[in-house]
Amino acid sequence: MQPALNTYNKVYVDTTTNKVKMLLDLYEGAIRFVGFAERVLEARNIAKKGEYISRAIAIIGELDNALDRNAGGEIVRNLSSLYEYMIRRLTEANRGSNVHALREVKGLLENLLDTWKQAAQQLPDTDMAVSSGKNGMASHSGKKYGGIHVAS
């Protein structure tokens, strides 16, 4: 019985730890694409600007879709509103070639990434976990960070 429990625990930890890493990777990817968009905008490469902004918008949309709106309460509503704001600003940046909007969104994403990294570091390695919910991230009892439940 004990070997089966150990196997279950290892699979649980491996799976959920990967979800935290995936969350961090998504933020890093969005930051990277916004940075790329900023550079190509300054170089006047309009086609690439649109491509990179579209990729950043897609990632932010996925982050928003992953929120557990049934369990996250006000934190989830605020985070969702922030994601929607970032998408609007990126759309404005794309339409108007607005480098300031790109920098604003990049700063917001960097702040969120730093917050998530700090939250993840506060948990022991075996507990640094986000369990699967409706959308693949978020619905385990434990600490709540930004509307995604992190197991404690």
List the helices and strands and how they pair.
Elements: H1 2-42, H2 46-65, H3 73-96, H4 99-121, E1 129-130, E2 142-145, E3 148-151
Antiparallel strand pairs: 1-3, 2-3
Helix pairs in contact: 1-2, 1-4, 2-3, 3-4
Beta fraction: 5-15%
User: Low-confidence spans: pLDDT under 50, at least 5 residues?
Assistant: 8-13, 126-152
Please give the alpha-carbon distance between the first and last residues. 24 Å
Secondary-structure arrangement, i.e. CATH architecture: Up-down Bundle
Number of helices: 4
Order of helices and strands: HHHHEEE
Shape: globular
The CATH C-level name is Mainly Alpha
CATH superfamily: Flagellar protein FliS
The name CATH uses for the topology is Four Helix Bundle (Hemerythrin (Met), subunit A)
Taking all residues together, what is the mean pLDDT? Answer: 79
Strand elements, count: 3
Name the strands of the widest sheet in spatial order: 1-3-2
Largest sheet: 3 strands, antiparallel
What share of the residues lie within helices? over 70%
Q: How large is the radius of gyration?
A: 17 Å
Give the assembly state of these chains.
single chain
Structurally, how many domains make up the residues?
1
